[in-house]
Fold this protein.
Amino acid sequence: MRAFFSKPRIIIIIVFVALGVFGLFSLYGKPPVTLPIKLIEDSNNLGPKYKVIGMSVEGRKIESYTHLPAQAGGTGDTKLLFVGGIHGGYEWNSVLLAYQFMDYLGKNPGFVPNNITVTVIPSVNPDGVYKVVGKEGRFTTTDVSINKQILTSGRFNAHNVDLNRNFDCKWQPKSIWQEKVVSAGSEAFSEPESQVLKNFILENNPDAVIFWHSQSGSVYASKCEAGVLSGTLDIMNVYAKASGYSAVETFDAYATSGDAEGWLASIGIPAITVELKTHETIELEQNLSGVKALFEYYSQKKN
């Protein structure tokens, strides 16, 4: 026994015990290291450029897909942004429309004119979509909950904020949706989803932004304190005439504040809101007609 516990052996045993304790502490005594989220970009030149442009309150991806001109030598100088699902699962059909629009562009790349770059953000509110469909990313109509309470809750983000009242145009802490008082956040752009859209727009400076919503079967112009931009009226009328939706210069059903479209007007970017006819229909053909007319308008404008 004395020989076994000689001084060299004792030192070796102490070293091994210390290493073991340190290893256990490293594994179980500390929280796992959280690595910074990296933006992902598709390097496939033949397909849309994909990016994770930010994260929701609950850590779900907010994604963008950019379709460049398919023609050789296409400049894509005019940048158009299409946004679905700012109201999450409550307007889930606007999210499906965005995905179906991207599918169409994938199958018909020549649809995008030589001078235009198209970016689609299918959903600004993925947490709201998840409440209603129980899935992240793509879904089908069979995934959609028919529970009215769940559908209504899907309008808001995980902080129970109406994101389309959280932008910096006449922002107030409380706003109106139909006859309900809704939270607009603690300040303009208090919500991560609103910040993501703001940062993307300021970084990319689109020539126009088209939001898909539901349900009124109309195309609305955007405005803030300085009124409606002249370019906004043009694209509202072009889209409405081609799609068969009504053109409405001013939304006056009830007072709103802090809407994304109004904020865009305040920084000089034309924006329109395209409202589908119901909360269930996709109306792809009508919207493709509207988009095609918009493409023609911007192609002629550059000539």
Summary: Residues 1-8, 10-45 have pLDDT under 50 and may be disordered. The two ends are 97 Å apart (CA to CA). The longest strand covers residues 49-55. The first helix runs from residue 7 to 28.
